[in-house]
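Running low. Any example?
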Amino acid sequence: MYGPAELLVSGSDLSPTHGEPPAVKTVQPGNAVQSAASPTARSGFQAVYSRATGKLFLIGGTDSTTHQPTGDLWVRDSGPSGTWTPLEIPGYQPHSTLAATYSYLNGRLWILDERPVGPHWSLARLVAIGADQRAVTIGAWPRLKLFDRHWLLLDRDGSVLLVASSTKLRKHAIFRFTAVGSGVRLVRIAAGYLPSAPVVDLAGYGFIVRKNDNSPPTLIRMRELGHGAAVSSAAMGAYL
C-alpha cells in the first residue's frame, strides 16, 4: 500500500547502455512541501520514475479507504521541493493498470491497462501520453486473458518493449514499439512462461523461463532480439 510518505518505484526510463536503473527505489519526501491536493493512500498502482525529466509518475490503483479504483494520474518532481500535481488527460482515465514505463526516446508515458466493458469481458488498452497531456491510443483489444503477465520495458535504444507471458500456454512473446504510429514488430516468441520480468542490460537480454510448474527455472541470455516481423494490431491482441 502507498501512503503520502513513501512510494515504491516499479520502472525507470534509464537506458541500460547509460547505466544501471534501480529495480526498486523508495522515495522519501522529507521536508518537501505537499500540494493542497495529493494522492490518497492506495494499493495496486503502477509507479514510474523518469530520469530524463526528473519526474515520478503515479498511475491508478485502488483507494485504501473506499476500495474503489482511483482512476487518476499524478506527477511529482523528484527534487526536495517537489509537490504532487494531478495529470488531467482529456478522454482518458487509467483502470486496472497492467504495466507502465516512460520512454525518453519519444518523451511519452506508456500505460497498459484493462477496463471492464460488460459483466463477462474486459478491454486491454495501450496508450502513450506526451508532454501535451494527450493520450494516443496505440491499440485496444478484447482481453482473452490467455496471457496472464505483462511488462513494459525499455530496450537499449529507448524503444518500448511489451512482454507478454502465458502460464497456461507456456510461452512468451515480445513486441517492440520504436515510435508512436510507426507500427509494432514481434521480435520474440518462444516456449516457456516467465515468472519475472526480463532483464535488459549492456550484455543483451536475460530471461528466466519455466516450461511448467514442476520444472526448474532456466536462465536464457541473448545478445540481440533481432529485427522481428511487423504484425497487425489485431494480431497483437491475442497476447493480451
Observations:
- The longest helix spans residues 233-236.
- The chain has a mean pLDDT of 84.
- The chain has one domain: 8-239.
